[in-house]
Specification:
The protein is α+β, with helices and mostly antiparallel strands. It is built from three helices and eight strands; from the N terminus they run ββββββαββαα. The chain has a three-stranded antiparallel β-sheet with strand order 1-2-3. The chain is elongated, with a radius of gyration of 18 Å.
Length: about 120
């Protein structure tokens, strides 16, 4: 993960692995001069020409409304995990019936969520 600050009053969190913007944080009312991502990647601190310093909690970034909206805008649908009730995204063309559980639930209990064998 990478974070950048900008003259447009935003901070942008980048998905380095996929070379794309993950989401933007808005709240400053002046040029964002600097920012720093914590070592555990749960917090961002930023300072701005608006004479403020802000701390942003991004620990649960998947639950931030702007992240969910961004995913919708790039062609993903948001569905709710039937096990833990957390929202997660799937491609617009994916069949929702086959994607009932988020990746965390599937990883935590792989035997419960493994797909049924395909008969040829």
């Amino acid at each position: 993960m990478l974070v950048s600050s900008s003259y447009d009053e935003t901070l942008v969190i980048w998905d380095v692995e996929n070379c794309c913007q993950k989401f933007a944080l808005k709240g400053h009312t002046g040029w964002v001069n600097d920012c720093k991502l914590s070592a555990d990647q749960k917090w961002i601190i930023s300072c701005s020409n608006d004479n403020t310093v802000r701390m942003w909690n991004i620990e649960s970034s998947e639950d931030i409304p702007v992240v969910l909206e961004h995913r919708k805008n790039i062609g993903l649908r948001i569905v709710q995990c039937q096990n833990c009730s957390k929202p997660f995204s799937i491609a617009q063309l994916d069949d929702e019936v086959n994607h009932k559980y988020c990746v965390f639930c599937r990883l935590e209990h792989p035997s419960e969520f493994s797909p049924s064998p395909i008969d040829f």
